[in-house]
Write a structure and sequence with these properties.
The chain is built from 39 helices and 11 strands. With 854 residues, it is mainly alpha-helical.
């Protein structure tokens, strides 16, 4: 479950309790006192609710540096200071999600970044555990997409941006160039010994622009060049810039000052220039030096060897920092190039050279990125690569390996729970790649569409997932062949689509063929094959073939145990839980509970070890299944306790109408009914019927079957209140459900037969014993044929039929059937089981619907 651990927020500390990702303070920061005071006055003027504040201005005027200085200068006023790179939507979500554990938020499922973001925004809104917080969104140039991710509450939000649209949305502080006094002060700090007159001349020529002054000051300080010489060179450089390539969106002084620094770097250390040129094609966010070092293998000699030399790399990064061409963070081992400088470096290069270096950067990113985005161990590398994939133009690359890199990022975003970000990148990739020669039949387009379908499914957009996966599967079969690994992977997903549509038999046929192909292509002892076997077992369960499901799940559990080598591996435990569920479906309630208890304890150990969070989907499914197993075994109190806990977690951490959330609601409703809480049970179960209509459609088998549980509660409430209309309503709903289930699943499906048995009970309670008897006599032999004569559901039907026989005057037959049924019941469940006691007391025994996982 998602919780926030309380902390004492009343004590002001000299430094924030939480301090994250804030860039290093600029030791040469100068002036801006009036802006800082104005900003502080604005952000502290709010009394009731947080209002975002934006530092808005042209590129190069020092917006980011002003925000950094504000964070350090007023740090003691905050308990939380968190820096968020905001030029990419995915980075904003990831940064917010990373704040969750620092706020004491626990229980977020791995791979559910949207849940973490929601929990963080909620905690900030409530001011728990910290009321004094500052979030800084740097380079937020798309207000419409960022605004929804900004928290409201007692803290402060600061934005830096070049976009004028913030004016209409937030309180804006305009950031202009330095005043002349600030320029002079800055140059005195940066260039010790410079005369006031020379400093004034430099400031005048550079237009008081902070980024240009930083470039000029660095060159002056490092070379000792005379100001007259520098100004002469600057005039020539500016004239050349204006004559050759007049800049449209950045100031001439920046380009001119940059060109002089570049010329000096070219003379002093050409290797550093080569590093800068490559950094220019990364994103404007910090670049991990490890990415450069790991990616060096794609570079040609001698550059490859130089990058591998730590001494050479240290010298090169030091030179870039000396000339203010990059910002070096030695603590984080990163270097960062201002986006204007990146633009200038790119434009200085001949087109062919720029294309070559861009390709090199793509190859470096690819070389540094793990092959499998599903392995958690590699996610830290993906996190470092993510900010640079789109800014580098990787989506536009035609190289297959770079497209695979982009596709892996799509999957990584899905894995960390940024499903919307995953879908957005997938759409951009497909739009770009499908216009090339291969079109929609290109292998990488097909793979990205497969991964996009996974995202649609995760968001509950089942129909869209079905349509996309069906069409993509058809293309894969035509283009790649039925036995291609990618074809087999999408086949597994398409089986889930069919189950979500209620086409259980079609899913089983598809997955039977898929498993045979997996065994042939991957081999019998491969994780992909285990997954295919798991899916087929789910089909067997949904088709009422519980013995087949049990045998296949038990084989998969054994195979996974052999493969992974330990019974506490989370995949093995998941299979153990499936086996326990199969045993329950087979009617072996006590053994099923024992197995489910074991799986639950193993998952709790896995959670405590940090491998999975407590609200991981498998952990939650196991807890829900254990609650059902406890109830079926007759332990209603323990079942209700776990059902309550599980339901609350699903409500907090899963989509409201996700099939697993609805299944947990059904479980809790059934547990409440068994413990006498009829009104709350009725409310909960009624909501699940509506939830299934919204999630899966009005004609899905789960939607019809869920009326069984509601009918039971309506009948019990009627018995308490005497309102026969409730039973009449239950009868009519059950009759409609019976008709639909017969059409959808056939007359001998388990769901159909349990619905018919419940309908017979409704007839009996309305006094129509002969109709109840006729229906019961049809159902009992079918249940025995399907489940066996000793299955609790067959025994329920027999016990109820005995009551109907007695009601129509066939007492001898009734007593014989009752005696045989009771003896079988006792052997199966024991004398103390509630169902057995109800039969002894002459009560009707109720069937309930427990949905299986899709």
């Amino acid at each position: 479950m998602t919780t926030v651990e309380p902390r004492d927020s009343s004590v002001r500390l000299p430094v924030p309790v939480v301090w994250g990702n804030v860039p290093q303070r600029n030791k040469n920061f100068t002036g801006r006192e009036s802006l800082l005071e104005m900003l502080r006055e604005h952000v502290t003027a709010e009394v009731t609710a947080v209002l975002p504040h934006a530092l808005q201005g042209l590129g190069g005027v020092g917006k980011t540096q002003l925000a950094v200085e504000y964070a350090y200068r007023y740090a003691s006023h905050y308990q939380v200071v968190w820096w968020i790179p905001a030029d990419q939507h995915a980075l904003v979500r990831a940064s917010l999600a990373a704040l969750a554990p620092r706020l004491g938020i626990t229980g977020i499922t791995a791979g559910r970044i949207e849940d973490a973001v929601s929990a963080v925004l909620d905690a900030l809104r409530r001011g728990e555990p910290y009321q004094d917080w500052l979030l800084i969104f740097d380079n937020a140039d798309q207000p419409e997409t960022i605004r929804e991710l900004m928290p409201h509450g007692p803290g402060h939000v600061l934005v830096t941006s070049r976009n004028h649209r913030w004016h209409s949305m937030v309180d804006t502080v305009e950031v202009d160039v330095f005043t002349r006094e600030e320029s002079l002060e800055f140059l005195r700090k940066r260039v010790p010994g410079i005369s006031p007159r020379d400093a004034d001349r430099l400031a005048e020529e550079l237009g008081d622009l902070p980024l240009a002054l930083e470039q000029a000051g660095a060159l002056q300080a490092e070379t000792g060049m005379a100001v007259d010489e520098y100004l002469e060179l600057l005039a020539r450089a500016a004239s050349k810039v204006l004559g050759e390539n007049p800049p449209a969106d950045y100031p001439v002084p920046v380009a001119a000052a940059w060109s002089l620094s570049m010329a000096r770097l070219r003379d002093q250390m050409p290797f550093a220039l080569e590093i800068l040129r490559r950094c220019a094609f990364f994103g404007p966010e910090p670049i991990s030096r490890d990415l450069l070092v790991i990616g060096r293998y794609v570079l040609d000699p001698p550059l490859r060897e130089a990058v591998a030399d730590p001494i050479m790399m240290s010298r090169a990064t030091r030179e870039l920092g000396r000339y203010a061409l990059a910002r070096i963070d030695n603590n984080r081992r990163t270097l960062q190039v201002h986006r204007l400088i990146q633009r200038l470096v790119q434009e200085e290069l001949p087109q062919a050279e720029a294309a070559r270096i861009r390709d090199e950067v793509h190859a470096m990113l690819d070389a540094a990125t793990p092959d499998n985005p599903d392995l958690v161990e590699g996610w830290t590398v993906f996190q470092a690569v993510l900010p640079h994939v789109e800014p580098s133009g990787a989506v536009a690359s035609r190289r297959p390996e770079i497209r695979r890199l982009v596709s892996s990022i799509v999957r990584y975003l899905y894995n960390i729970g940024d499903t919307n970000g995953s879908l957005e990148l997938a759409d951009r990739a497909v739009a770009q790649w499908s216009t090339d020669d291969g079109g929609f039949e290109d292998r990488e387009v097909l793979v990205v569409n497969r991964r996009k379908a996974d995202g649609l499914w995760a968001l509950g957009r089942f129909q869209e997932a079905y349509e996309l996966r069906r069409s993509t599967l058809e293309l894969m079969r035509q283009v790649l062949g039925g036995d291609d690994e990618e074809t087999l992977r999408i086949t597994n997903g398409h089986g889930a689509d069919l189950r979500a549509r209620g086409e259980f038999a079609a899913a089983r046929a598809l997955d039977e063929d898929s498993l045979a192909r997996h065994r042939r292509v991957f081999g019998p002892d491969h994780p992909e094959t285990f997954t295919a076997a798991n899916n087929l077992a789910a089909d067997f369960e949904l088709c009422s073939e519980y013995q087949k499901a049990y045998e296949l799940d038990e084989q998969t559990r054994s195979d996974r145990l052999d493969f992974y080598g330990r019974d506490e591996h989370h995949v093995v435990v998941s299979s153990l839980n499936a086996v326990a569920r199969d045993l329950r479906q087979l009617g072996d309630y006590h053994t099923a509970r024992a197995q489910a208890e074991q799986a639950y304890l193993l998952f709790q150990n896995i959670v405590r070890s940090g491998v999975l969070p407590e609200s991981h989907a498998w952990v939650m499914l196991c807890a829900k299944d254990l609650s059902v197993a406890r109830r079926m075994a007759g332990d209603f109190t323990a079942a209700l306790e776990l059902a309550e806990e599980t339901y609350q977690t699903y409500q907090r951490d899963f989509p409201r109408n996700h099939p697993d959330t609805l299944a947990s609601a059904i479980n809790l409703g059934n547990a409440l009914r068994r413990t006498g809480h009829l009104d709350r049970a009725a409310e909960l179960i009624r909501a699940t019927v509506d939830g299934y209509i919204e999630a899966l459609g009005a004609d899905h088998p789960f939607t019809h079957a869920s009326t069984l549980n509601l009918a039971i509660i309506q009948r019990q409430i009627a018995a308490r209140t005497g309102d026969l209309s409730l039973i009449e309503s239950a009868r009519d709903e059950l009759a409609a459900a019976y008709r639909h289930l017969s059409e959808l699943l056939g007359p001998d499906h388990h769901y159909t037969l349990t619905c018919a048995s419940s309908l017979a009970t409704a007839y009996a309670e309305l006094g129509d014993a002969r109709e109840a008897l006729a229906l019961g006599e049809q159902v009992l032999p079918r249940l025995r044929a399907l489940l066996g004569p000793n299955h609790p559901h067959a025994l329920m039907c027999a016990a109820n039929l005995a009551l109907d026989l007695r009601a129509v005057g066939r007492a001898e037959q009734a007593e014989a059937l009752r005696s045989d049924t009771l003896a079988r019941y006792r052997r199966r469940l024991g004398d103390d089981h509630p169902d057995v006691r109800e039969v002894i007391e002459g009560l009707r025994v109720d069937f309930v619907f427990e949905p299986s996982p899709l």
